[in-house]
Design brief:
Order of helices and strands: HEEEEEEHHEEEEEEEEEEEEEEEEEEE
Largest sheet: 6 strands, antiparallel, barrel
CATH superfamily of the largest domain: Efflux pump adaptor protein, beta barrel domain
Strand content: 35-45%
Helix content: 25-40%
Structural class: alpha+beta
Number of strands: 25
Shape: rod-shaped
CATH architecture of the largest domain: Beta Barrel
Strand order of the largest sheet: 2-14-18-16-15-19
CATH topology of the largest domain: Elongation Factor Tu (Ef-tu), domain 3
Distance between the termini: 72 Å
Length: about 425
Amino acid sequence: MKKKLILLATFFTIVVIAIISFKTKSTGDKDISIELTYEPFEVTVINSGELEAKNSAPIMGPVRLVNARVWSVKIEDMVEEGTIVKKGEYVATLDRTEIGDKIRNEELDGEESLNNYESTQIDTALDLRARRDELKKKLLNVERRKLELRGSKYEPPATIQQAELALKEAEMDYDLAKEDYILRKEKATTSMRRRNIDLLDDRQDLELLTSLYEQFVIYAPEDGMVIYRKDRGNKIKKGSSISTRNPIVATLPDLKKMISICYVNEVDIRLINIGQKVRIGIDAFPEKRLTGIVRNIANVGEAMPSGDAKVFEVQVEINETDMDLKPGMTTSNEIVVLQKSEVLALPLECLHSTGDSLSYVFLKRGLQIIKNEIIVGNSNSNKIIVNKGLTPGDLVLLNIPSNSKDLEYQLLN
């Protein structure tokens, strides 16, 4: 009897284990489906960006360096980026070595020009005085010859004729001396004018260089926060060189209005348009969520330093004013390129393809499952719009059924 009971208990245990095992297997093979409904849908392009002030006042170095033939100047000293300065406070000092050498050379040139001017002035005065004395002698000789001619009126004709010839010769000598004096005076005037121009030029150059030398110490034009200017992607700082054609050393940004500069790859740039809304996150303040709008899109792409991919600069203007925002902070920009209020959208896991143009889903109709052809539209990172082939209330499988190879296609007309 005991043996029978033991056998029955063992049989019952085996049956229970088999049932439990069967139920577990069935549950594991169960298909998972979702019911389609109309829902909001949007497509976004996400990029990281960097904050900049929309408007900023430039802190300029000397603006007439080109006139002084100075082509590049290094920043010798500069306050730290982010320093708050008042109008008139110190910002930077430029290297004055080159312009100092030019000042010394110009001083020497000025002294030489002054010496040349004074020397020419003395030489001219002496030469012209000698010519005037010579001219007076020639005039006196003419007067003497006239007296001799008047005194010879009772002399023989030959003597009178000789006196007349002597007078003519004296008058010719006087006229030649007078003409020579006029020419020499014009020459002296021209020479003095040239020496005077050289002297004035040297003095003006020296005044310009001296004025520029004083401008090599730079002060803030107004109140604000000092932000280093970027040159070809690199920030200008102590030791950097500034262009004499665009001598901006730093900027004083207006923190009331900020923009985020981001770079969109050439694949996504076709989706971006001016006026699109943007959701903005600030890495330094994860709790802040701001909004913005696309204000500018670059017409020309640029190569990324790390590869051959092209990117386009996009400027996003931030709607809110937040004084916690600082230039250089990193942002995450989510540009909304498509937004619809009611569409049928599938999770991407539901969509399958035969490898050609045929897209389909596993559609559940009662106890039957079919491969139902659909036509899809725009997609985002999670879902894709169904344009044709499904209706609200349809049940679509998230998984691939075990007998998927045996299922038939239901094609659209």
